[in-house]
Amino acid sequence: MDRLAKCPANYVPLTPLTFIKRASMVYSNRTSVICDGVRFNWRQTYDRCCRLAYSLRSLNIVKNDVVSVLAPNVPALYEMHFAVPMAGAVLNAMNTRLDAKNIATILIHSEAKIFFVDYEYVPIASEALRLLVARLERTSNSTEYAMPLVIVIDDINKPTGVRLGKLEYEQLIRHGNPRYPGEDLEDEWDAIALNYTSGTTSDPKGVVYSHRGAFLSTMSLIQGWEMGTEPVYLWSLPMFHCNGWTFTWGVAARGGTNVCIRNTTAGNMYKSISNHKVTHMCCAPVVFNILLEAKPHERREITTTVNILTGGAPPPSALLEKMEDLGFHIMHAYGLTEATGPALVCEWQSKWNHLPRDQQARLKARQGVSILTLADVDVKNKDTMESVPHDGTTMGEIVLRGSSIMKGYLKDENETAKAFQKGWFFTGDVGVIHPDGYLEIKDRSKDVIISGGENISSVELESVLFKHPAVLEAAVVAMPHPRWGESPCAFVVLKNTVSTSESKIMAYCQKHMPKFMVPKKVEFVKELPKTGTGKVLKVELRKLAKTLRISENTNNKRSEKEVDQTRYHQDEDHHQEKVMAMSRL
Amino acid sequence: MDRLAKCPANYVPLTPLTFIKRASMVYSNRTSVICDGVRFNWRQTYDRCCRLAYSLRSLNIVKNDVVSVLAPNVPALYEMHFAVPMAGAVLNAMNTRLDAKNIATILIHSEAKIFFVDYEYVPIASEALRLLVARLERTSNSTEYAMPLVIVIDDINKPTGVRLGKLEYEQLIRHGNPRYPGEDLEDEWDAIALNYTSGTTSDPKGVVYSHRGAFLSTMSLIQGWEMGTEPVYLWSLPMFHCNGWTFTWGVAARGGTNVCIRNTTAGNMYKSISNHKVTHMCCAPVVFNILLEAKPHERREITTTVNILTGGAPPPSALLEKMEDLGFHIMHAYGLTEATGPALVCEWQSKWNHLPRDQQARLKARQGVSILTLADVDVKNKDTMESVPHDGTTMGEIVLRGSSIMKGYLKDENETAKAFQKGWFFTGDVGVIHPDGYLEIKDRSKDVIISGGENISSVELESVLFKHPAVLEAAVVAMPHPRWGESPCAFVVLKNTVSTSESKIMAYCQKHMPKFMVPKKVEFVKELPKTGTGKVLKVELRKLAKTLRISENTNNKRSEKEVDQTRYHQDEDHHQEKVMAMSRL
Fold first, then answer.
1. Which residues of A97-135 are buried (b: 16+ CB within 10 A; e: fewer)?
2. Nearest Cβ partner of A1 from B5, B208, B403?
3. B229–A348 C-beta distance less than 8 A
4. What is the rounded average pLDDT of the residues A56-78?
């Protein structure tokens, strides 16, 4: 058995690049990319990728070089998902909500050789490059990193002429060789992408994906979401989020159509859905609100089922129901940048069809079951490394193992070693396993509130608050408590039309949760501090909570009007600086 | 990038064993296996696999040992697909239609350490063991191979007490350890299965699969067939056929239900479909006839869509239409044992829904597009290695490349080297690529008829004959021709109710194909010589054709009654000896 050797016919490195070559052969005439008036088929998209890859080589890009891009969901960014690795290089798709300082930091850290900039982002990119020059001047050691070559991506529909440096993306396409087959991939462990993440607290970390991991994760997600033939995929999720949760590659694997939109506005989304008969889209639950709150002139009727894969935060049941009423079919996924996107999907069971809708929504809000390319998912006591019982209540840290987990953090041995311990990747998320084997996240491990020795899941508490008719948004963090050590403090954004009071909310909580979980303080705010991707910045709320006084069960009548908005707004600038690519999906 | 090392958290060998462990966690209470009165859920099936794997180790099975099984589609054979590799061993599921001599040959060639025998197969297994003893005695070198340990698999529903040796399957389950986690898989390139194939001409060859190949092929086929959640899979395809075209592992991956039947009778199939609401089944087109010709008392109404994946031979359009009328939804696949089952699937395109049904059937009969884990499929001129144009007419040999191709042939360096040439696996099948990128097989390369320098596809000619209202079955082979070198000779089985003549068939052919393709001889036979798996033994027909006289356009009035059945029947015993596991699906 052991004497049968690997050969080029039976051992080919796994890579998502297979998908585009195959698409050019078997789906050649099908529409690959639509962006306003521009349309390509798969033969053309492959042709453009070959040309771009060839041009990158001509620009001295070699294996393991980083190519950074700052662009919204335009065809160029899609093409780079194939062309950059075809040239042997590593794609770094940047979060477009980064500030100039963070962009500069990432360019230096990744040692990007080329920096593609969408024309709309030329101002912030220029600022970032100025900061970069200044920093390079400060650090005398100039051999370490040279300035990247800057290439603008002009509007593909209506070229604007905006430039930063001499080159424009379409020049690279024009001068490329459509018959360039790409570099041979020697090892599927080679890097394909670099995605920066910071979560909400720490410094940016560069998550490196291998070709193998990207291939496997893509395969799993097509399968886990049951994306059938001829999908029409709307790019409502930024491609810079874990490479569009792998669907940049996945749509090519299915020979589907990518509908690119520059901005995730209600108008753009409804128009695309209606014009192109969109079948699939991914987004964070925050996008549900955009769709639900669309103005009448922006709306279109949804005539066919639109499948949504959502993640980043558990979707509140009320939102789920409203979305499904509109004709959207929602699947919930859980993942992290480090897991190459979704690692769990909440696979629907037909027996749940007969349950009341609120119960269905509750089941759907769970994170679910592991995708097929993960070797193992478990919830463990971090100290003893014992698995929690499948009882739906015992909490532990969610740990993952498998070939779709990142290679590690670029140039960060410490953080890499911290993430990989005892044979597992530690997610930093706290969850339970239900008797049916479905996993549910209770909190980020750092967001768990420990009150008098009891673990309180802030997520669980928030989900109760969400059901209160006056509550639009809610976030719960720990605040210091003289008796219990910590106690929950709820920050609540109220709906415009409904009024309530702190004591009413507290009374409501007392009715719907164990006493020890009831917030000892409810603070009304106009909005919650969030990252650019819509994640609540709990680190900011915790700072705020430290400055508040415990209310307990006082009959505090302070209404939402009395909320101290000033304090919150003072902190806002500071938040903005911390806004980075999210770590959770 | 290169400094980020593999570790147990981010690099786990790919293996289908992941699927059963996962199923036991996330689908624990769902029904895994049904066999008449016996039912297991996934926790139980995993428990039984762990026990069996433990018992195999107790019986001194170690890494790379071969465990052979001769059994129909019973739960034991299903469980062995996981338990045997969990013990580090290699599963050899034997074709139950083999004769004693072939069984003995395989036991010796594979050096099987354990030989599991279903109670129904005890007589033939005993005979095989007698032959084995005799052969071992003849070859003095007794150190090379010792007799395998024989273990009977009794009927799980109604134990019969039939034994061959001391052990019975359920004893191994009982005495096993349900907490045995299985051996650590060190390398995904390690062997998982050994499937013997002979095609229709040559000696048996032992095709070895790796864990990696089995995993990837399983992933691709779930995806290519779009097998959704909670499938109910009917085992109409023998599990010994490329491990059930990988669905032994695939059903576990989907947490589906395996409906096991001992015999593929119309009654068994209809009953299972109706009782268990079967959603998926695989079979050769020959099974369509069984379903279509069911007696009224065997039939059940098909109330939900039953998806069929078919392969082995292109399904005739007429059969396809009739099957779809009954409520079956058919997808056509093409593969080989060497490709770990299906390598191409005929992915349906929605625009074809508007075509006339015969045209739909014609499109569906094509072999289609590559599965996602194949790196490359092409049709090439074997001499120049140039790809054929996508014109639907230029023929070439179908070649494959990818990680789901076999490791090679066990102990057969010559055949392995012949199969893997110039970086490709040569299928020995001749095909074309259509302008839409879909591949269609025209023939086995050895079945192509070369007449006056023209290549004639026997398959193409057969498909024309099939459309003749009097024709039930047809097979075309080359016969020697004094002028053209070779010319086509058609063997035809007529329907009982219709009569025709050789000249009428020839006249029909002249109307429906180019003149050079028209058979120079039409021979009526009562049945076609076939392998145990329903493949026409063309090698036998070629022998027969050599003895026939060319008719050309003579007005030969000999009716089907005059067919020389004797000659055919004389050869039958000889055929039976050659019947082996098929090479094509």
1. bbbbebbbbbbbbbbbbbbbbbbbbbebbeebbebbeee
2. B208
3. yes
4. 98
CA B367 from centroid of its chain's CA atoms = 15
pLDDT tens, residue by residue, A255-268 = 999 999 999 999 99
State how far residue A378 is from chain B, nearest Cα, in angstroms: 10
| Sequence spans of domains, chain B | 448-578
Q: What is the DSSP string of A407-428?
A: SEETT-HHHHHHHEETTEEEEE
Asked if the domains A17-263 and A448-578 are classified in one and the same CATH topology, the answer is: no
Cβ-based neighbours of A422, under 8 Å, separated by 6 or more: A385
- More confident call, B470 vs B154: B154
Averaged pLDDT score across all residues of chain B: 88
Class of domain A17-263: alpha beta
B350·A229 Cβ contact <8 A: yes
Q: Which residues of A touch B280 (CB under 8 A)?
A: none
Q: Which helix (H) or strand (E) holds B508?
A: helix B502-512
| SS3 call for B410 | coil
B406 with A10: Cβ contact below 8 A: yes
What is the pLDDT at residue A116? 98
Residue A557 has pLDDT above 80, yes or no: no
- Tens digit of each residue's pLDDT (9 = 90 or more) over B334-356: 999 999 999 999 999 888 999 99
* pLDDT classification of A583: cutoffs 50, 70, 90: very low
Least Cα distance to A405 among A396, A389, A416 occurs for A416
Angle at A159 between CA A156 and CA A161, to 5 degrees: 135
Residue B321 burial (10 A CB sphere; 0-12, 13-18, 19+)? middle
pLDDT in tens, B71-92: 999 999 999 999 999 999 999 9
What is the β-pairing status of strands A521-524 and A485-494?
Answer: parallel
β-bridge pairing A521-524 and B31-35: unpaired
Residue A198's pLDDT band, with cuts at 50, 70 and 90, is: low
d(C-alpha A107, C-alpha A127), whole Å: 13
Check A372 against B406: CB less than 8 A apart: no
Q: How far apart are CA A80 and CA A160, in angstroms?
A: 21
Q: Which CATH number fits domain B448-578: 3.30.300.30, 3.40.50.720, 3.40.640.10, 3.30.230.10?
A: 3.30.300.30
Three-state SS string over A158-193 comes to: CCCCCCCCCEEHHHHHHHCCCCCCCCCCCCCCCEEE
Cβ proximity of B568 and B526 under 8 Å: yes
Q: What is the ipTM of this complex?
A: 0.84
Mean pLDDT of A214-234: 95
